[in-house]
Amino acid sequence: MADIVQHVEASHLMPHNYYPPSVSLPHYVSNESSVISLIAQFGVLCAAVIGIAFVAICRMRPSATLSDQVAFVWMCLTGFVHLFFEAHFVIHHKEIAGSQALFSQLWKEYSLSDSRYLTSDTFLVCMEAVTAFAWGPLAFFIAYCIVVNHPARYGLQIVLSLGQVYGDILYYATSLLDISYCRPEGYYFWFYYFFFNFIWMVIGCYYTTQGIVKVSEAFKKIEEIDVDRKVR
């Protein structure tokens, strides 16, 4: 009986490079593609989204300012990442560790900085579900609003960006309370864990501020019109 128990326990401790070393990944299979290949493939996908988005905004709204062009491209890119890459995690989180699909391999590579992505952590599954299925479609809708120059774009922009910033804050907070999920090499912490998420923090803060300024200016103009009418 003891031999059977030991055999079962050993089967749950498959060799891997994730932290803590004791984390159980019974269905884990190492990536077939190299890190450079994975990053290159994902980079090509992102570059394609950026290129198509830029061409689209130039054709559909030639009079768009540079600021609106950049905002449109960003909304398309963040929408793509949320609705496809992060949705892949939500849908396939239970089998990612043993999958060789491109997005699964990318998640396995990123998980070197946070192994919870391979253990179906409840918080991450819930957070990524909101990000994928709420912020993803909303980002594409905001991109549409930019194309048609709809004023609702700024209010929705605040909602999306605040959601992204809030999600990052929660993610950083829950991770920093226990960094044992990240490998000890600084590369994984500072580049994968910190930098990749900080991008959404910085840009989210920028578009939140821009939205607030635009909405405030609109209300200020309305107040000025009301005052002018009363004076007359």
Give a nutshell description of this structure.
The chain is an all-alpha fold and 232 residues long. It has seven helices and no strands. The chain has one domain (25-231).
Describe this structure in words.
This protein is mainly alpha-helical. It has one domain (25-231). It is built from seven helices and no strands. It has helices at residues 2-11, 35-60, 66-92, 102-110, 122-147, 152-176, 186-231. Helix 2 packs across helix 4 (102-110). The protein starts with a helix and ends with a helix. It is a multi-pass membrane protein. Its main location: membrane. The chain crosses the membrane at residues 35-58, 70-91, 122-147, 154-174, 186-207. Keywords: Isomerase, Lipid biosynthesis, Lipid metabolism, Membrane, Steroid biosynthesis, Steroid metabolism, Sterol biosynthesis, Sterol metabolism, Transmembrane, Transmembrane helix. Residues 67-208 form the EXPERA domain.
Give the termini distance in whole angstroms: 94 Å
Mind describing the biggest β-sheet?
none
Output the helix-strand order.
HHHHHHH
Count of extended strands: 0
**Helical proportion, percent range:** over 70%
Question: Rg, please?
Answer: 22 Å
Family: Belongs to the EBP family.
GO molecular function: C-8 sterol isomerase activity; cholestenol delta-isomerase activity; steroid Delta-isomerase activity
Keywords: Isomerase, Lipid biosynthesis, Lipid metabolism, Membrane, Steroid biosynthesis, Steroid metabolism, Sterol biosynthesis, Sterol metabolism, Transmembrane, Transmembrane helix
Subcellular location: Membrane
